[in-house]
From TrEMBL:
It holds the Pfam family SUV3_C. Keywords: ATP-binding, Helicase, Hydrolase, Mitochondrion, Nucleotide-binding, Transit peptide. This is RNA helicase. One of its GO terms (cellular component) is mitochondrial degradosome. Residues 833-844 have a biased composition (Polar residues). SUPFAM superfamilies: P-loop containing nucleoside triphosphate hydrolases (SSF52540). Residues 386-562 form the Helicase C-terminal domain. It comes from the Eukaryota. The lineage of its organism: Eukaryota, Fungi, Dikarya, Basidiomycota, Agaricomycotina. It is an enzyme of class 3 (hydrolase). It catalyses: ATP + H2O = ADP + phosphate + H(+). Residues 811-821 have a biased composition (Basic and acidic residues). It comes from Apiotrichum porosum. Residues 41-67, 808-844 are annotated as: Disordered. The gene is SUV3.
Length: 844
């Protein structure tokens, strides 16, 4: 947070506390006490200690002590933040002098066409007028709102900004717009018409009116509201499956894919196996089915304007509507509600958005709305006990939730080492296709995995047979520090337990919500924590209702940027253009601008090619799916932009070459191809079956996958400049395959001891040995990387031996070496002898 923001925050807090003492609470409903961080540290220190074989230094007591402070804080911070309208004038007064005197405001004025002398004079005059106005306003709520509106202040927007904790930036933007409106009427004559043009270009408050088709019909909205696993999507899809034309729009391409498959196969609602021809449309994939009346797509690809004949869709289903409050992607949901051309719009999500959606729909003349409310189909209970910090207590059907890829691996290793049961993994950086494969391995009876270890990515998009969710920690590292899990995250993740019709473990709990279902409800879900100390917190959080979403996230339309372009100085960078437009934008009611951090990072790269790229190019590239936190992908994005700008021809292999990611893919593929299969019923014998590159290569393969998805995404927008879509898709599929095998071979599962093996198992094992193990008890070394490792050892050995022969005093060692010449493996029996280690627990 900048110093300015800190000061602004502090001063506004003080004023608010003075002016509305009884109503100001803490900013976030769930910004909890430091006890969270303690739990996370304990968790990771514990897993580190296990994996390194050391004892954790954290005293055992700390794991068991309930975190009362955090629970108390939780209860207190549930108090809603309130700001009375009467406090607003004072908040404005307190800030106005400092704001007007600041250099950044002057710089902004210069960018808008003022000279600095004129800017200072005009700002002084405006400040004086504000103070005069403030003295004249009476302090009665309703009339104050009207008086403020007459002077260009949107009191309700400022109150919402304050209550949602974003007020510093938004107050500043409100000052800027108010000042420019004033200057456009009363400022220096030479600039007035220019300022009016700026105000017009950035006025997006009537953006909904630009969706002409949607405005010309009367849409009927159905809100399907309920917690996870309450059957909302099921009911909405039923309506879609009956429609002649329609669309399903979901948050992930995984979900779009799943719905596409289900509609085509007829496994939705009333279809009873009679498939409906449905097309698939995602940023990276298009599949056309003959005579398709339906489309399944990701929300960003929603065909707003209706079907191919430009007629309104009969039914459009928009899933996970609460995502309209998401800082980064929320704009896509908001636009869908504003502009989709459909007779019936079904919105599925949790209760938090009901009020906001009602007021949005009310603002569209002629549109109507019905709300359907649902309860969970299966009960969800908090277990009476935690796992008491012991992975031994994990059961088949459990999903252990932790955060970050490394923690997922380390928990997987701990569980596999302790229980001897294989774990599937799901985390955000895994390609969705690989996630789905892991989910299948866990869900299906013949799958190898009985336990799932997942990050919060498990909260959405996958149907999983989870009986019990176990939170390994109640905090998450946000890139800078540990933050407590939000109530939304806790509820979304916990809700995965006991999925209707998919449950695995049972709890004795009668389901009383399942009256409307077509089939018998499955047993309910259970949720618990790994550590005893976290359980009371979980128990306190689960029954809480989620705070209502008060504002939808709004994405700056490209038209606003292109209208602004001729109005700013020609040397203005794209990042500054974005920033100026966002600062001056007049938004529709109850909306807040989306987060532009990632877009600004991409804009910096695009700036290098600003003389070549068109405004449309910049708009497309700056919205490309690039995670700038992954330096490999960010580097490849830079190569792509450069190749596009210089040659208008982007060769997929060429842009990937510098990153060596394709080389990694080939090396891992070759390594895997030379490996014997995994031994049956045994844990993984790391030395032969898990070459280091198959573990170390996983993050690189994940980056490669993202880079390929980016290429494919761009190829759908510029098919001439990106001609290698097929090749990129082939590489993408290869990457997914290799990733799956690498995950399959991740070391961890303890080898079964002979007492634990059945005769059948022994038989299969004997077969395996005969085929892959030589007479010395070694896995047959036809494997390139093993050979290379052996050669390296031989080289070292020779060097060491020659050094030893030179020194008389090491004769004894030399003799010992000489005896075993020709059988280098015998120097490392622990590493190479398969027979010797097969009965030992894996050291991984
Ligand atoms: N009436 C029903 N008959 C049969 N199966 C149903 C019924 N309602 C829901 N299901 C099944 O229950 C599971 C959960 O339903 P659904 O995905 O619609 O819930 P949801 O409330 O949308 O959950 P989420 O918010 O997690 O997406 C699905 O597998 C769905 O097919």
């Amino acid at each position: 947070m900048s110093i300015y923001r800190q000061l602004a925050t502090r001063s506004l807090r003080c004023v608010a506390a003075r002016t509305a003492p009884a109503t100001v609470g803490s900013v976030s409903a769930l910004r909890l006490a430091s006890g969270y961080a303690l739990n996370r540290d304990r968790d990771s220190s514990r897993s580190n200690a296990r994996s390194t074989g050391r004892r954790s230094r954290a005293p055992q007591q700390a794991f068991d002590k309930p975190n009362n402070d955090a629970i108390e804080e939780l209860t207190r911070s549930r108090e809603p933040i309130r700001l009375e309208v009467e406090s607003l004038p004072r908040l404005i007064l307190n800030r106005v002098d400092e704001w007007a005197a600041s250099e950044r405001v002057k710089a902004r004025c210069v960018a808008f066409g003022f000279d600095s002398q004129a800017a200072t004079e005009c700002l002084d005059a405006w400040t004086f007028k504000i103070k005069e106005d403030l003295l004249m306003w009476d302090d009665n709520g309703e009339s104050l709102i009207t008086q403020m509106a007459a002077r260009g202040w949107d009191a309700n927007a400022l109150i919402l900004a304050y209550e949602s904790g974003n007020f510093a930036r938004e107050f500043e933007n409100a000052f800027l717009r108010n000042f420019i409106e004033y200057a456009a009427e009363s400022g220096p004559l030479f600039i007035q018409s220019h300022l009016k043009a700026l105000l017009e270009a950035t006025d997006v408050s009537r953006h909904a009116q630009t969706y002409l088709q949607a405005r010309s019909i009367n849409r009927h909205f159905h809100l399907h509201m309920g917690p996870t696993n309450s059957g909302k999507t099921y009911q909405a899809l039923k309506a879609l499956s009956r429609a002649k034309t329609g669309v399903y729009a979901g948050p992930l391409r995984l979900l779009a894919h799943e719905v596409w498959e289900r509609l085509n196969m007829g496994s939705v609602g009333d279809l009873n196996g009679e498939g409906r021809a449905t097309n698939l449309l995602t940023g990276e994939e298009r599949r056309n089915v003959h005579n398709a009346g339906l489309v399944s797509c990701t929300i960003e690809m929603l065909p707003f304007y209706g079907n191919a004949a430009a007629e309104p869709w009969d039914v459009v289903v928009i899933d996970e509507i609460q995502m309209m409050a998401d800082d980064h992607r929320g704009g896509a949901w908001t636009n869908a509600v504003l502009g989709v051309n459909a007779k019936e719009v079904h919105l599925c999500g949790d209760e938090t958005t009901a009020h906001l959606l009602q007021s949005m729909v009310d603002s569209f003349k002629g549109d109507t709305l019905t709300i359907h409310r649902y309860n969970r189909l299966t009960p969800l209970v908090v277990a009476p006990e935690s796992l008491n910090g012991k992975y031994e207590n994990v059961q088949p059907g459990d999903c252990v939730v932790t955060f970050s890829r490394n923690n997922v691996y380390s928990v997987k290793k701990n569980i596999e080492g302790t229980l001897g049961k294989k774990c599937a993994v799901v985390y955000g950086a895994l390609p969705p296709e690989t996630r789905a494969e892991q989910a299948r391995d866990f869900n299906e009876d013949e799958g190898r995995s009985q336990v799932l270890v997942a990050s919060d990515a498990v909260g959405m998009g996958l149907n999983l047979k989870i009986g019990r969710v176990v939170f390994a920690s109640m905090t998450k590292f946000d890139g800078q520090r540990d933050v407590p899990l939000s109530l939304t995250q806790v509820k979304q993740i916990a809700g995965r337990a006991g999925r209707f019709g998919q449950g695995r473990t049972t709890v004795d709990n009668e389901d009383d919500n399942a009256a409307t279902t077509d089939e018998v409800a499955a047993p309910g879900g259970v949720v618990t924590t790994l550590h005893a100390a976290d359980l009371p917190l979980l128990r306190a959080m689960l029954p809480l209702t989620l705070p209502a979403v008060t504002r939808a996230v709004f994405e700056l339309p490209n038209e606003a940027l292109t209208s602004m372009l001729p109005l700013v100085h020609p040397t203005t960078t794209y990042a500054d253009l974005l920033d100026h437009t966002a600062a001056l934008a007049k938004l529709p009611p109850n909306m807040v601008l989306s987060e532009t951090r990632n877009r600004l990072a991409l804009a910096e790269v695009l700036e290098e090619q600003r003389d070549v790229l068109t405004a449309t190019d910049i708009a497309v590239f700056s919205n490309a799916p690039v995670n700038t936190r992954d330096p490999k992908v960010a580097g490849i994005f830079q190569n792509i932009v450069q190749a596009y700008a210089t040659d208008y021809h982007v060769d997929v292999e060429e842009v990937l070459k510098k990153s060596t990611l394709l080389h990694t893919l080939k090396t891992v593929e070759e390594t895997l191809a030379a490996l014997p299969p995994l031994p049956p019923h045994l844990g993984i014998f790391r030395q032969y079956l898990v070459p280091p590159i198959t573990v170390g290569g996983i993050p690189l393969l994940e980056s490669l996958h993202k880079a390929l998805v980016l290429y494919i995404w761009l190829s759908f927008r510029y098919s001439l400049a990106f001609p290698d879509r097929e090749l990129a898709t082939a590489y993408k599929l290869r990457t997914e395959k290799v990733l799956e095998i690498c995950l399959e071979r991740l070391p961890g599962v303890r080898q079964l001891k002979s007492a634990e093996r059945t005769k059948e198992m022994d038989k299969e094992l004997a077969l395996f040995r005969r085929k892959y193990v030589d007479k010395h008890g070694l896995v047959k070394p036809s494997i390139k990387w093993v050979n290379q490792e052996q050669e390296e050892r031989m080289r070292k050995m020779k060097r060491w031996r020659s050094a030893a022969t030179e020194a008389d005093e090491v004769t004894e060692i030399h003799d010992r070496t000489h005896k075993t010449e020709g059988s280098i493996q015998q120097h490392h029996p622990k590493q190479f002898n398969y027979r010797q280690i097969s009965d030992r627990g894996s050291s991984w």
